[in-house]
Amino acid sequence: FVINCGMSHTQNVPLRTMSPWVQDALDALEYANGPATSPWGSLRARHGHPAPFHLRYMEIGNENGGAPYAERFALFYDSIKSKYPDVHLITDVWGGYPNNRPVEMIDEHYYSSPRFFITNADKYDSYDRKGPKIYVGEYAVTQGCGNGNLRAAVAEAAFMTGMERNSDVVAMASYAPLFANVHYKKWNPDLINFDGSLGYGTPSYYVQQMFSTNRGDVVLQSDWVSQDLIREHAPRRNGKIGLGTWNTQSEYKDIKVTKGDKILYESDLESDAKGWTRLSGNWKLVDGSLRQAAEGSQRLAMAGDTSWEDYTVTLKARKISGAEGFLILFSVKDSDRWVWWNIGGWNNSQHALEYSDGDGKSVMGHFVPGSVETGRWYDIRIELNGEHIKCYLDGKLIQNEVYDTTPTKPLYAVVSRVTATHEIIVKVANVSPMPVDTKIVIDGGVSIASAGKSVVLTSASPTDENSLELPTKVIPKSKTLEGISNEFHYTFDPNSVTVLRLKADH
Questions:
Q1: Does the model's pTM come out above 0.90?
Q2: Inter-axis angle of helices 39-46 and 19-33, nearest 10
Q3: Which pLDDT belongs to residue 357?
Q4: Active-site position among 30, 59, 63, 482
Q5: Cβ–Cβ under 8 Å, residues 302 and 279
């Protein structure tokens, strides 16, 4: 149960008036867990459920953080623990979590690209076992996902193998959001889509189903070795330049691109403003500057030549109004493939390099705390030299990164045992576009029966989706496995999620 802690992303209830908000949490707990003779417990009984619900978890707020959250968290913690000491409290992680009270579990949210989830599939392997437990309360591939495609589902499955493999740390997880009417979608993708008479699950729905119905009670040690690495998502260094904003109105001038002593581009916006390709937003020439005046995210304009490489970009930028700062693009191939320096992003709290490879947007390198002031001109300089990217703000080096060419392994897996049925469950996500023939060896003093079962989610293309018209285009398919033993070969299909259920003796 998530209780409102008196905060939004932009406003806070004054601390002195927080008592009713805290009382709401206590009342909710009494309704869920109190005796039928209590005021709220009796209401529960009148609603048809005299027995307590035994609610075990309550989260204080949602995506809140900072000093105001720490103050309010302490109020809720003290009041709830004094009356319901056995209820576990979940703490928001929004720029860190409070340290003024004990933290039992933290709520992490992830919405990103397939590559993000694949490259973070192993993140909890090195998590501090002495830290708080993790609730991944919201996660989904939301970039490069179409309306919910196979590629997104496979990437989420890779991440889920890491959560399950580290279930001593990751106590709970929940995909979000769950439902959407196809005629009134406020978010994309959603797990289950419907209209007035029909419904269907996305491939991600079937991944959730496969994981939830194939759970062991003991996670086993497994080693996946000698995997051929894939590099399909590495961004290319050549490309145009670009300008942009995110929920902000900004303007740019004195734009210059050089390579050594050679000038590749020098803006004379009075004459060449029309040479800029405006992909989105409201771009106008105002007093010698190119100004973006529209609301909304990812408002972009681009110029130059895709053959440019190893160049330096300099310009001036000024924020007029809005929530964030500047987007300076380089290595631009087209509207879906580029790198940008996000200056004053994430609600004007930090800087970072991000890239889009047609498979969604991912952070490249490190976050650096920082913000952008309204009305002030900033000098920006970006130097590209081979794999290296250096970004300067007012002459100060802010980012010193390299192009993300980290290869990805094709297979991500978790192995578990069902003690009651003596089964071994192997869950594998193959994130590569190629089949992967794998030698599977199971030791530990058990004997594997010759017959087993496989359940596979895949399709002809990673962009395949389900729909109201084709609700079962991408669904799991089961078959019996014959001739297996403690050592056998199995070929994992391209872009697939596979569950193997193997019978073992005692």
A1: no
A2: 50
A3: 76
A4: 63
A5: yes
Number of neighbours of residue 176 by Cβ within 10 angstroms: 15
Residue 270 is a catalytic residue: no
Q: CA angle, corner 439, sides to 435 and 445, nearest 5?
A: 145
- With CA atoms as reference, report the closest residue to 278 among 253, 298, 296: 298
Query: Using 50, 70 and 90 to split pLDDT, how confident is the model at 276?
Result: confident
**Phi (first) and psi of residue 301, to 5 degrees:** -140, 145
Q: Is the backbone peptide bond immediately before 177 cis, with ω within 30 degrees of 0? A: yes
Both tokens of residue 91? 């703490």
The three-class DSSP label of residue 117 is helix
Matching residue, tokens 């285009």: 473
Cβ neighbours, 10 Å, residue 274: 9
- How many CB atoms are located within 10 Å of the residue 55 CB? 15
- Secondary structure E strands in 260-371: 262-266, 277-278, 283-286, 289-292, 299-303, 312-322, 326-334, 337-344, 350-357, 361-369
**Coil/strand/helix, residue 346:** helix
Over residues 122-155, the pLDDT tens digits come to 999 999 999 999 999 999 999 889 999 999 999 9
